[in-house]
Amino acid sequence: MKSAYELAMERLNKQSPTIKLTDRQKMEIAELESKYKAKIAERELFVKGELAKAMDKGDAEAIEQLERQLTSDRKSLLADLEEKKEKVRQTSD
Fold first, then answer.
1. DSSP state of 16
2. Average pLDDT over residues 2-22
3. CB 23 within 8 A of CB 60
4. By the 8 A CB rule, do 36 and 81 touch?
5. Cβ contacts of residue 81 below 8 Å, gap of 6+?
6. What is the per-residue pLDDT across 17-70, written as a single tens digit (0 to 9) for each?
7. How far is C-alpha 35 from the chain's CA centre?
8. 73-78: long-range contacts (C-beta < 8 A, 24 or more apart)?
9. Which helix (H) or strand (E) holds 92?
10. Residue 56 to residue 59: CA distance in whole angstroms
11. What whole-number distance in Å separates Cα of residue 63 and Cα of residue 51?
């Protein structure tokens, strides 16, 4: 008898089978992830510097705005990364 997990995994594989990636695709995806990790870190450093300035001034409104901006930037970069990774997955050698 199969567990609920095994049954769920079978259904998932029927709906969207796993795609085997080539070594080249894996390398491109790894490069994209590295590049975007650096972009996110760069953005976080910049915004955190601005946050420190706003905290020194005691500007609560600016702090809130910067935190929203950081969250938005991170989501945007991650969405862009996923889009590019999907393009790599769709390409064939």
1. S
2. 80
3. no
4. yes
5. 32, 33, 36
6. 667 889 999 999 999 999 999 999 999 999 999 999 999 999 899 999 999 999
7. 11
8. 73/40, 73/43, 73/47, 74/40, 74/43, 74/44, 77/36, 77/39, 77/40, 77/43, 78/36, 78/40
9. none
10. 8
11. 6
Residue type, 71: T
d(CA 5, CA 2): 8
Token look-up 């796993």 returns 18
Give CA–CA dist 14/9, Å, rounded: 9
Contact between 88 and 39 (Cβ < 8 Å): no
Structure confidence at residue 14 (pLDDT): 76
pLDDT on residue 72: 96
Residue 93 has pLDDT above 60, yes or no: no
Q: How many CB atoms lie within 10 A of CB 73?
A: 16
Residue 13 has pLDDT above 80, yes or no: no
Tell me the C-alpha distance between 12 and 15, whole Å. 5
- Token output for 89: 């997955």
